[in-house]
Amino acid sequence: MKIGVTVRNIGGFAGSDGGVHDCLLVARHAERLGFDSVWAADHVVIPERSAARYPYNTSGVPSFSWQTPIHEPLALLSALAQTTERVEIGIAVLVIPYRHPIMTAKMLATADQLSGGRVILGAGVGWLREEFEGLGLPPAYFDHRGSVTDDYLRAMKEAWLNTGPARYTGEYVRFTDVGTFPHPVRTPHIPIWTGGKGRQALRRAVRLGNGYLAISSDPAILRDEVAELRRLSEADRRDPEELTVAAQAGIILTHSPAPAGRDPLTGTPEQVIEGLRQYADAGLQHLVTAIRAEGDPSREGTLAAMERFAAEVLPVMRAGAV
Prior knowledge:
Blueprint: E1 2-6, H1 20-33, E2 37-40, H2 73-83, E3 88-95, H3 101-115, E4 119-124, H4 129-134, H5 139-143, H6 145-161, E5 166-169, E6 174-178, E7 192-196, H7 199-208, E8 211-215, H8 219-235, E9 244-248, E10 251-253, E11 266-267, H9 269-282, E12 286-289, E13 291-293, H10 299-312, H11 314-318
Parallel strand pairs: 1-2, 1-12, 2-3, 3-4, 4-7, 7-8, 8-9, 9-12, 10-11, 10-13
Antiparallel strand pairs: 5-6
């Protein structure tokens, strides 16, 4: 299993005024410590008021507000590409309907060129209606955001794969005879891991992607999702081994053992290792995580937690025990 860490481009760290430079600091730290990848998240604007329920926790309340600072992930990718040399660089997940697909494809290809072919695209449909409205998008783009995402991803792949002038005609975007060079370094194109929940996200991974990025899935849920991913792959005559199984889940390191009923990735290093084994048994291949120390959301606490994880957990993983 590979392990990637988030750079906290949304919200940052408690008590820090480092801004976007904290993102670069975390990325460099992750690379030095031996992590496999670094990840940014995506929002563009946060409405002051929203009736939407946050879909990825039990409370339905997001951890951010309209006052939360957000560093735009596509711009950040290019900076991460220049400040690191080895780790893969991803977005988990980019809300595909927010941006014109040719511009998105061009910015991702530029970052991939700068990184030497290390970019991964986590692709999502979005959930916050008021953010769609704040960006001036038509109401249909939220109501049919799955179809918009599929259309845009097909258009982006055309921009990356054409050998001459690119052309694409879809329901929501079309272009004819335009140059979209240079292409990404990765071949055949930047990996697309579709994120979300439910059968549609899994089907999107099979038909348009190179992987599935689970969100808010414990090991039992992930096991069921992987089984369904395999069934859909076989039904579409797609080799399921071609698809990377990834997931987003936070890690909280404690000094005392966490009680029974804990989150699988909360506890001492030994408990976290056991949780990682549960995820690995469910089929997880790449974990995207925010690592922090219990009760310490500061930048320094996070860097220290990453060091502890690298010293006490990564060697067990590299030895093949996870």
